[in-house]
Amino acid sequence: NSPHRAVVYSSTGNPSQVLSARALPPLPPPSPTHLNLRVLLSPINPADINVIEGVYPSKPSIRPDLGNVFIAGNEGLAEVVDVGDSVNSVVPGDWVVMSKPQAGTWASQLSVGEGDVIKVPQGLSEVQAATMSVNPPTALCMLRDFASLSPGDYIVQNGANSAVGQAVIQISAALSLKTINLVRDRPDISELKSKLSSLGATHVLTYDELAEKSTKTRVKEWTSGRSIKLGLNCVGGRDTTLMTGLLGHDAHLVSYGAMSKSPLSLPTSYFIFKNLTSHGFWMSRWYDSHSKSDREQLLAELADMMIAGKLHAPEHEIVTLRGSDEQVSEQVREAIGKGSAGRHGKKV
Ligand code: NDP
Question: What sequence ranges are listed for the domain Enoyl reductase (ER) (predicted)?
Answer without folding.
Answer: 13-348
